[in-house]
């Protein structure tokens, strides 16, 4: 289904949060492009980044910087533009604005002042990485971990205490430090998924333990998302092997072969059939 580029998608006095590609430009939706062509101004995390995107897609609208350092001043201007009936768009450099990117201040202001807005969805690195992880729902998105000090220690402690999967953004120059901090707090065996350069030519998804990832001694490049697996539940802790072996022996005594017995018990308790079989055989030999 194609989007009618001649359709008027924007309304006066309305703000549009527009998702932009996180790497592959083919992910820029026709609707998002049409909205950016039709609004009066585009609020940007970095006008230089957005200028490249707009030039690529032949979009010619005034670009205005909007970030944490100038938000209070910009909101005064936004109020004036909205009062004059202008329509505005908000974009970040990549992905969805206001998610670990500038925009939260604007959203609070829109709600407080009852200004109408719409969200034009686009790619999200955190959603992509979690979808690729195979970990169970729910998950917690932490964004970028503070680089140092008390704020960093507190955030790492929150991640340690979190029972769910954790999605973390990290820059290449902080990756080794973050991995080693997580290794110390969570242990070598915690499962993680690394999403790197997602939607780009050298896209990579890697899954293994924290210990395995740290031992690779990589030179980190590109944009990365780390998905830390959830804490092991009580059912995922080390099985009570003695009891399980007794259950196997009871089935064998009832007429099952040891292969049939280990298969049945392994399926019942969701454990490795091979490991249970090996342990049962070892117990018999002893």
Task: Summarize the topology.
Blueprint: E1 15-18, H1 30-38, E2 41-44, H2 47-56, E3 63-65, H3 71-83, E4 88-91, H4 104-112, E5 117-120, H5 125-133, E6 139-144, H6 149-161, E7 165-170, H7 172-186, E8 191-196, E9 204-209, H8 210-215, E10 224-228, H9 241-253, H10 258-269, H11 273-285
Explained architecture:
- The protein is an alpha/beta fold and 286 residues long.
- It has 3 domains: 15-123, Tetrapyrrole methylase, N-terminal domain (Cobalt-precorrin-4 Transmethylase, domain 1), CATH 3.40.1010; 126-233, 2-Layer Sandwich (Methyltransferase, Cobalt-precorrin-4 Transmethylase, Domain 2), CATH 3.30.950.10; 238-285.
- The protein contains 11 helices and 10 strands.
- The strands form 2 sheets. A 5-stranded parallel beta sheet has the order 3-2-4-1-5, with helices on both faces.
- Helix 6 (149-161) links the parallel strand 6 (139-144) and strand 7 (165-170).
- The relative contact order is 0.11.
- One of its GO terms (cellular component) is cytoplasm.
- Catalyzes the 2'-O-methylation of the ribose of cytidine 1402 (C1402) in 16S rRNA.
Q: Give the helix/strand class.
A: alpha/beta
The rough form would be described as elongated
- How many angstroms does the end-to-end distance come to? 69 Å
Strand content: 15-25%
The percent of residues in helical segments reads: 40-55%
Overall pLDDT score? 92
The major beta sheet can be summarized as:
5 strands, parallel
Oligomer: single chain
Order of helices and strands: EHEHEHEHEHEHEHEEHEHHH
Task: Indicate the CATH architecture of the largest domain.
Answer: 3-Layer(aba) Sandwich
Give the radius of gyration.
Answer: 26 Å
**CATH topology annotation of the largest domain:** Cobalt-precorrin-4 Transmethylase, domain 1
CATH class bucket of the largest domain: Alpha Beta
Biggest sheet strand line-up: 3-2-4-1-5
Summed up, the domain count is 3
CATH superfamily descriptor of the largest domain? Tetrapyrrole methylase, N-terminal domain
Total E-strand runs:
10
What is the overall number of helices? Answer: 11
- Low-pLDDT segments, ≥5 res: none
């Amino acid at each position: 289904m194609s989007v009618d580029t001649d359709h008027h998608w924007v309304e006066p006095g309305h703000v549009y949060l527009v998702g932009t590609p996180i790497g592959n430009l083919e992910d820029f939706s026709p609707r998002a492009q049409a909205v950016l062509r039709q609004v009066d101004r585009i609020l940007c995390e970095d006008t230089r980044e957005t200028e490249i995107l707009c030039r690529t897609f032949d979009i010619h609208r005034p670009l205005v910087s909007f970030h944490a350092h100038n938000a209070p001043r910009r909101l005064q201007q936004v109020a004036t533009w909205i009062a004059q009936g202008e329509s505005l768009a908000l974009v970040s450099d990549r992905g969805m604005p206001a998610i670990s990117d500038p925009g939260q201040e604007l959203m609070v202001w829109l709600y407080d002042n009852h200004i109408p807005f719409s969200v034009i969805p686009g790619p999200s690195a955190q959603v992509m990485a979690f979808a690729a992880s195979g970990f169970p729902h729910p998950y917690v998105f932490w964004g970028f971990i503070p680089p140092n000090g008390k704020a960093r220690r507190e955030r790492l402690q929150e991640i340690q205490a979190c029972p769910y999967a954790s999605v973390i953004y990290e820059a290449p120059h902080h990756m080794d430090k973050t991995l080693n901090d997580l290794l110390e707090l969570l242990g070598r065996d915690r499962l993680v998924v690394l999403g790197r350069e997602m939607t780009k030519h050298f896209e990579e998804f890697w899954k293994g333990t924290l210990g395995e990832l740290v031992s690779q001694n990589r030179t980190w490049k590109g944009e990365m998302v780390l998905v830390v697996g959830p804490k092991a539940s009580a059912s995922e802790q080390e099985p009570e092997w003695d009891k399980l072996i007794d259950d196997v022996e009871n089935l064998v005594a009832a007429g099952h072969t040891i292969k049939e017995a280990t298969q049945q018990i392994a399926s019942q308790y969701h454990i490795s059939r091979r490991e249970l079989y090996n342990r049962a055989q070892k117990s018999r030999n002893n």
